[in-house]
Structure formats: structure tokens, C-alpha cells
Amino acid sequence: MPYLAPEIILTALAIVLLLLEAYGAISARSVGIWSLVGIAVAIVVTLFTEVGAEPMYFWTDPNAAEGTAGKGLYMWDATARFYKLFFLGTTGLVIWMSMESAAQPVGPKTQPIRAEFYILPLFVAAGMCLLASAADFMVLFVSLELVTITFYILVAYQRESATALEAGVKYLILGGLATAFLVMGIAYVAGFAGTTSFAGIIAKYNTPDHLPVAVALGLLMILVGFGFKIASVPFHLWAPDVYQGAPTPITAFLSVGSKAAGFIVLVRVLNEAFGPTAYATWGPALTAIAGCSLVLGNFAAMHQRNIKRMLAYSGVGHSGFILMAVLSGGVPDGPGIAQAGMTAVAVYLATYFLASLTAFLVITIVSPTPEEESIRSYNGLWQRSPLLAAALAASLISLAGIPPFAGFVGKLGAFVVALQFHHYGLFFIAAISAVAGLYYYLGVVKAMFWSEPLEVTPIQVSVPTQVLLTILIFLLIATGLCMEVFAWLVR
Amino acid sequence: MNADYLPVLLQLIVAIGFAVGSLAAAQALGKRGRDSAAKHIAYECGKDPIGPTQPRFSVKFYMVAMLFILFDIEVVFMYTWAVVFKEQLQYGLTIVVSMFSFIGILFVGYLYVLKKGALDWTHVKKIERAPVVAPQKA
Questions:
Q1: Is residue B88 in some structural domain?
Q2: Quick check: B116 and A214 CB within 8 A?
Q3: Can you name the residues that pair with A192 across neighbouring β-strands?
Q4: CB nearest to B108's CB, from A18, A62, A63
Q5: Min Cα–Cα distance to chain B from A60, Å
Q6: Which candidate from A19, A62, A213 shows the least CB-CB separation from B91?
Q7: Cβ neighbours, 10 Å, residue A271
Q8: Which burial class, exposed, middle or buried, applies to A357 when counting CB atoms under 10 A from its CB (0-12, 13-18, 19+)?
Q9: CA spacing 20 to 30 A to A36: which of A10, A223, A276, A486?
Q10: Contact B4 A62 (CB under 8 A)
Q11: Which residues on chain B are in Cβ contact (under 8 Å) with A188?
Q12: Residues of B in contact with A15 (CB under 8 A)
């Protein structure tokens, strides 16, 4: 299969659907179905694209002087393929959620789900797939902006509601600020290295000396930009309000897709563009960020009464756990990030993907309006719909990291990496935070099973979604019991 | 090596200097303490303002401004493309294909805008609107 195939498929499909919809030839629902088909095709294409032992590079500048240009702009390796599949899967489930919420009755001030709500995620997915393959800061920046700008529209979709507008403005302004930091950082690094290509930068700065001050400053500024995407403390301020105000499928997209996009570029840059010597710069910074995210995320989540806000703070905490796995560099003559760290990040994200998207799928069905997003609305969910209660319980327990579920494997990996690379302080903080996490996750589980419901009307779930939920519950348990699955995924 | 950092230092000094300088100038030159109600009304060529000072604009103006920027930026790309076009032709048709696919995507955007009625100023649906109330004068 030709390289760039998933991106081209998604973009072409999105453009065709946009035109068909504008000319009124197709209904919103069929746009949703076609989007799902397109994503399925892209997943198949990505699965059947060969991955060599060495990464393959494309778009090499033929007439660049020796040593100035990199190997190319676009790289295709096992990591890129894994994250492309991750993003495509996320987008597929998000579109499914959107179709689920389109089937719900709309309130007087709610915008009905229109075709654009299915088309824009396709552009986001194309941007994220490109991001997974970026081998140059130019491609990285353009694809990151494709993702972010499309998210600005999606976050403010419910434009009649005050919380959605607040979310939109907050995300736009803080996102713009983060982008400014990122560009400034790239400008410093590229200005001193003389190239924007990852391979060119590492060739110049992978020496035993420390990084020049300006390059170190640039790297830290780039970390600010990525810290915003992954919602880590102190760049997390947008997360609770935006997660609450955005439509639930988009919240899910932000919390899984956008976070993973931040992490793939983070590990790519630290691994491909900077070598082990740069660890002296980013190691302490990321350790502090990880520690703060763990503590603040998990402890702030305890007091939340809105389930989307709770998941936002818990997502900040999860960023801390994943950063713990990223912090596995600094080995002289080693890679920027050790293979163990890369694997732990990928596994953690995979388990987070399963658990988080399951939770948001249930929230989409149970809480069609903002008023029903309070945790009290989940009281006695078991009596209203056993399947939804079981799915939400499985995902929350998995997020908490209790053994038979997938989340345990992810947490285990992150903790093992922390011990292996002697981050004992961080290990200690993470252990306490994980225990704090149990409190609020299990609080919701307790409310679902042991509290009296506010209303007793049963919740109807369509048959395809019932099947999907059952598969997700099965996967949450099966991948938790059989960890080898992850070894196969990230090979 | 240290000379390399001179532009960075210069940029820092200019940025900080501008912010501090304008605040200090305002502090030094501005006459404070002579505050009256008249100072708080909107300035309208010396006359007392008539009607609301922050009237609501139709969203169509913003639409046109936004679309103008979107389609205007396209020309920025075309300039740089035009400069290297002839020279790059020797490496094959990549340069032609990339520009035309870019314009093609923009054209789809244009059709979308057209069909959604963003450029339509005459056929406006009648919208019930709350009457604009003039703010009370202080």
C-alpha cells in the first residue's frame, strides 16, 4: 500500500461528503455511516501496510546539501502504525457516539447533530495520522494545527449554551497561547540547528556536551505546547471547563485522541529530534510536570460533582502516569527514550483508550443534557440499565487500575519504568495518587449499584450499541488478563 | 558563540522595554485623579453620544471578513509557488499537482460557502430578535 494512504482516504472522503451534504444529496445520518465506512477502510489499509525493521522515510528533498536536510518529512515505522490505528479507532468510536447522541431528543437550545459533526472528526483523524508520522517540525506543526483548529469548531458546537461558549473561548485562547509557545520553541531550535528536520537536529546536537542555552530554551517551550495538548499541570487549566462544555463525543475525542496526539509528538521529538544528552534539560522539567499532574489531577477529581469534570481531572492524573513512562531517557549512547518507556506509553494509552471511550459512550447515552451530567444522575443506574452500569463500572475500575481490567497493565508498565529509571520520588507520589483515584472512581461505582435512583425509567440502548458495549467490556477484561496482546500490538 | 544570542537578548529587551515603557509613559504623562462622569461616556467627535455605543453588527460582516482572510491567504501561497514553479518543473509534475490539489480543496470550500448561503445578503430569513435597549447613561 502506498504511504500516506490513510490520510488521503480520510481527507478525500471528508471533502466528498462535505460537497454532497452542501448540495443536499445526502442525509446527516448517512454521512455518519459513510464516515464509519471510510475509517474502517483506512484501518484495513493501515493494517496491511508493511513495516520494515528500519523506519521508512518519504519526501526527501533530492537537491538538499549533505547533512542539512533530514531523511524526509514523513516516516513510516511500527510506532507510526500503532498510533495511526489508535487514532482511527478513536475517531470511529467518537463518530459512533455522535450518531448515538443524534438519536436522542433535542432540547430547545440544543443544536441538532448535523453532517459537519461527522465530517470534521475525519479531518481531525487525518491530522492525527499525519502527526504519528511526522519526521520534521514543519509537518508536525501543520498537522497539529489541523487537529487543534478543527477542535475549536467542535468544542463550541452547542453555541446556544453558555458553558459551550465558555469552553470554546477558553480552548481557543489557551490553545492559541500554547501554539505560540510551540512555534517560538521550534523557531529557536530550528534557528540554531539550521534545519527543521528531526534527523538533522539530532545529528547536530547528539554530542556529549550540553545543549546550547537557546536550544534548551526552545525545547522547553516546545514542551509547553505539548503540555497543553496532553493537559498536564500547569497547562491543564482549560481541561475541566472545556470537557464540561463540549458535546460528550467531542469530550471523549479530546480526552483520548488529543491527549494521545500530544504524547506521540512528545515521544517523537524527544526520541527522534533530541538524543540522550537532552535529558538533562527535559528530564527535570517533565518530572516536575508529572508529579504535579499526578497530585493535582487525582486530588481535584475527588470533589467534582459533574462526571465530565471528574473525568477531566482524572485525565490530568493519567497524563502524569504516562509522563512517568516517558521519563526513561538519559542513558548515555542510548535512544532519547528507552524502548521500555515507549512500550509503556503505548500500552498505557491503549488501555486508557478502551476504558475512557467506554465511559464516554455510556455518558453519551445516560446524560443527553448538561443537567443530567451530575454524578447523582448515575444513582441506581444498575436498575435502569444493567448493561450500561456494567460497562461504566468496568471502565472506571479499569481507569482506577484494579487487576483483572486493562488499566492495571498500563499502570503496571508505568510503575515498572519509574523503578527501572530510579524515579523513586515520582513512584511514591504516583502510588499515593493511584490510591486517591480509587476513591472517586469507586464512588461512582457505588452510586450506580448501591444508591436509590432519582428516576426509575429504564434506559433504552439500541442493539448495535449493546453489541459494541459488550465487546468493549470483553476487551477491557480480556486485555487485562492476557497482556501478550499489547506486546503484539506494539511490535 | 555568545554573540549568537545578541538578537535574542535584543528581542527580550525590546519586548520588556515596550511593555514597561508604555506603562511608565501612561503613568507619567496621564493626568490622574481628575475623574468625572463625563470622562466615562463614549467619545463621539466631541458631541454627547446618541443611541447605544456598542451596537450589534450583523453576523454577515464577520462572515465576509473571515472568508476574505481564508481566501486571501491562498494568494500568499501562490506567490511563493510562482517563484519556484519553473525551476521545480524539472523534477516532475509534483509542483503542479500539489498546487492544483490545494486550489481544488479551496474550491470545494468555496462551493460549500456558496451553498450554505454565507455570501447571500438578500434572502434573509426573518429572525425574531430582542429589541436593542440603549444602556443607561451614568
A1: yes
A2: no
A3: none
A4: A18
A5: 13
A6: A62
A7: 21
A8: buried
A9: A486
A10: no
A11: 8
A12: 105, 108
- The reported pLDDT for the residue numbered B138 is 47
Distance CA B87, CA B82 (A): 10
Q: Is residue A187 part of a domain?
A: no
pLDDT in tens, B114-133: 888 888 777 655 555 555 55
- B79 part of a folded domain: yes
Identify the domain containing residue B100 by its residue range: 59-115
Q: Are the Cβ atoms of B116 and A22 closer than 8 angstroms?
A: yes
Residues A1, A9: Cα–Cα separation, whole Å:
12
How far A22 CA sits from the closest chain B CA (Å)? 6
- ipTM of this complex prediction, to 2 decimal places: 0.80
List of chain B residues whose C-beta atoms are within 8 Å of the C-beta of residue A23: 115
Are the Cβ atoms of A214 and B115 closer than 8 angstroms?
Answer: no
> Could you read off the pLDDT of A137-189 as tens digits, one per residue?
999 999 999 999 999 999 999 888 888 999 999 999 999 999 999 999 999 99
A34 found inside a domain: no
**Is B97 domain-assigned?**
yes
Q: What is the pTM of this model?
A: 0.88
Residue B102 lies in a domain: yes
Q: What's the Cα-to-Cα distance from A168 to each of A77, A127, A206, rounded to whole Å?
A: 35, 20, 41
Q: How many domains does chain A have?
A: 1
- CB-based contact A395:A359 (threshold 8 Å): yes
Domain membership of residue A431 as a residue range: 284-491
| Residue type at A207 in one-letter notation | T
Are A18 and B112 a contacting pair at CB < 8 A? yes
Which of A15, A18, A214 lies at the smallest CB-CB distance from B8? Answer: A214
Measured between beta carbons, which residues in chain A are less than 8 angstroms from residue B116?
A: 22
List all residues 6 or more positions away from A407 whose beta carbon is below 8 Å from its beta carbon.
A351, A352, A355, A397, A398, A399, A400, A401, A480
Chain A partners within 8 Å of B108 (Cβ): 15, 18-19
Task: Report if residue A338 sits inside a domain.
Answer: yes
Confirm whether A183 is domain-assigned: no
Show the cell assigned to A148. 487543534
Domains in chain B: how many in total? Answer: 1
Q: Which cell numbers in the block locate residue B56? A: 450589534
Mutate to test the interface with B, among A4, A11, A13, A15 (most CBs of B within 10 A): A15
